[in-house]
Design a protein that fits this description.
295 residues; Rossmann fold; 6-phosphogluconate dehydrogenase C-terminal fold; 52% helix; globular
Amino acid sequence: MAEPVFRRLALIGLGLIGSSIARINLDGRTLAGELVACARTPKTLARVAELGIADRVEADPARAVAGCDGVILCAPVGSFADLAAAIGPHLQPGAILSDVGSTKQSVIRDVGPHVPDGVHFIPGHPLAGTEYSGPDAGFAALFQGRWTLLTPPDGADAAAIERMAEFWRRCGAMVETMEPGHHDRVLAIVSHLPHLIAFTICGTADDLADESRSQVLKFAASGFRDFTRIAASDPVMWRDVFLNNREALLEMLARFMEDAQAMARAVRWADAAYIEDKVERGRKIRRSLIELKQA
Amino acid sequence: MAEPVFRRLALIGLGLIGSSIARINLDGRTLAGELVACARTPKTLARVAELGIADRVEADPARAVAGCDGVILCAPVGSFADLAAAIGPHLQPGAILSDVGSTKQSVIRDVGPHVPDGVHFIPGHPLAGTEYSGPDAGFAALFQGRWTLLTPPDGADAAAIERMAEFWRRCGAMVETMEPGHHDRVLAIVSHLPHLIAFTICGTADDLADESRSQVLKFAASGFRDFTRIAASDPVMWRDVFLNNREALLEMLARFMEDAQAMARAVRWADAAYIEDKVERGRKIRRSLIELKQA
């Protein structure tokens, strides 16, 4: 039996991601010898205790991280500056501080200044999720076969990076390191923009006159149903993602809007070749994804 | 054993929808005593013969409909005007002519003038589909539990409407009649606009610089993967849908673009409450869909 990656690990936030990590550790303690769960609301803490997925629950982040050699922030990224300020002074020398946030430049901006000398700050982002949230939503297979991206700052300790990589491999993930700015641009197009669009079109439909709206719900064909699946995600998490990847998201959205306007023009002027070409490109991307086994 | 709905039925077009109808009829001939399959390309005809899902294959639409008491157009809607002109003179008095096109005003415009007196024209649209196309893509459960909308013209024969309703119920579908213009508006928002958006965002991603593009494919998170699933649909079918529901589609797209611009503005100016509200609406719509058992 391999040693656990961490002797004592604190998870700050027990939503979909945090509670999945906790569930993975139940089977063989491969991640942490002792797992401390810290959540903001008494309701979440009580539920985590009830589920029995952590060794200890703790309301105070500063107390949660005491004596830990690993700390992972699993809360919405908008809370990271305050969390980092609260736990910074209590982090143990040699400990690893990581996170699972969907935006990485903002995390480095908000958390970096609070990391004491001797603590290894290795930001990370598991590319996994469902439309569900909260401690009941997690499951041990969530990261299986999915990528986790690590965005360590320049000069980060190689052993600490490898320890986080090993952590995610034990969760079932494939691991790659990436420059934080590049991460934010790639995620803007593959995840953040699609979510923004899905939320928006649900609102557009909801604004239709009452009679049409009930028809919309009744006859939602496959296209719209897929959009609502995406749009069912956690509001606070996504609000924070949008606000913390503003530049890249607005750039990708502007590109998309130009392309959508061009498509509108093609529909208006019956430019059949243009439309066919665009649809054909969608198919090609789909085919590439299948070849890469991500679909 | 109930009588089949039609003594002899011609399907013009054997793609996903047509070949699914043919497969349903294999089990017990509940739809047609004899099923004639007509397709434009020799390749599709040969494949349909090979699959053995029709009693007869026929390249010429006029010959296919001869002696039929039921004819259903299952080709892309852009081909309907020519098809209707070709088969009109050969339709048998008392026969029902129907279709499965995604746009209904255009079908009435293109097919209506070619329907001889004494033939019952009952347009229809099964709200079912996958991202696959062609005669191999069909399957007997495609319509199970899904809606089929009939848009009969004013004064259509009640018995003919009921016969088409029975046809679709035997396919496993729930049936409702709807005014054609209303159908086109509802479908514009639940299906046509989501598809247009999905095709567009795939193009936007594909336009990124080569290095980013390969990363996009490699790290496609769930949001983007769902979009590519939608975007993998048949190019000619969707080209025709967009061009034949132009007014409603452009109106819904304009509404969506306004809403997306408002979201962009909220992201730029960090209007957290606005963003949260929009995300929350997406969740509500999702919840409504689940209650209506469409998700």
